[in-house]
Amino acid sequence: MNFEWTHEQAELFEHALRFGKELSAPLQEDNGFPRDNWNALGDFGYFGLPIPEKYAKDGSGFDILTTIKIIEGLGQSCTDTGLLFAGAAHTFACSMPILEHGSETLKHQLLPDLATGRKIAANAISEASAGSDISNLATTAQKEGDYYVLNGGKSYVTNGSIADYYVVYATTNKKHGYLGQTAFVVPRNTPGISVGNDYHKLGLRSAPLNQVFFDNCTIHKDYVLGREGQGARIFAASMDWERCCLFAIFVGAMQRDLNQCIEYANTRMQGDKTISRFQAVSHRIADMGVRLESARLMLYYAAWQKSQDVDNTKAVAMSKLAISEAFVQSGIDSIRVHGALGYLDEGRVNNSIKDALGSVLFSGTSDIQRELICNRLGLL
Known about the structure:
Elements: H1 7-24, H2 35-44, H3 64-77, H4 81-101, H5 104-116, E1 121-124, E2 140-144, E3 147-158, E4 165-171, E5 181-187, E6 193-195, E7 209-220, E8 224-225, H6 231-267, E9 269-270, E10 273-274, H7 279-307, H8 313-338, H9 340-343, H10 351-359, H11 366-377
Parallel strand pairs: 1-4
Antiparallel strand pairs: 2-3, 3-7, 4-5, 5-8, 6-7, 9-10
Helix pairs in contact: 1-3, 3-6, 4-5, 4-6, 6-7, 6-8, 7-8, 8-10, 8-11
């Protein structure tokens, strides 16, 4: 492993830092989905970072390490973590499965607009009684000739209300369990689709979250990703991308938290000295730095393993677990360092803890990551 970034990668990171600051300026977090900022992200190239130019002229085709470095820069400078989250869900849980498992026709048809953000995609897998256990999806797809008839409902669909396409996982053969799931791309205008109202969430507010229902939706077999029965494997591969690239946003956000705490501690006076001179404050900030660097290196290692095309299940699970838990603690420590100012919404310091709490749930809970780690460690 070479831990030195190339000159091009360093320039791309700095470009992302500058762009993220510009993007944050007009943000109104509670005013719904910020379409203008989404379009700006598309112009920046966010949605096409890993998409080859062969399938989208606006794609960059970057390797995974370059991709996460750019995303980390955006996460550090853009205060709208929810918008970046929505974009990452669109790219890594939807565009990447299409890129890696869709037919050539489907890739050329869908990826050009997905890579620019002109069309938006949503990953639809979680259900009321099937989140972590995808072998028991109640949503079904019954094959009838060249078509599948889709029925069921999904509970927590990021981008659900704004999506043009859904990547949907459904049971095609219940008897086969894990091997009985199939992945589909379902256009939003397919008859029989209905979308619930946006959920009101604690954090990541600019990323819409909805229920989506499918009532006798007819899907042509050309919209199957991979082959029938490969849905679980395709989903696992998409989570590999998401747990690396999406969580680079949170590494960047933790760096922003750390920078803010250092600046505040070095300027906030208590008595005749800055609070940075008190060990209760300085040691807390030191611990924030240790957690951040540990999480960052684990992320880079997991991404490097993926670039080497080796089984990185344990590394990705450890990275996702470390980042999620560190992000939560970073949010708490930021509030403590800032005191009363950190507790007030006006100071925006508490945004991190609001965004961080969800990270221990989505893309596989922290407990699921521990189970994956235990399995790879050889625990019976």
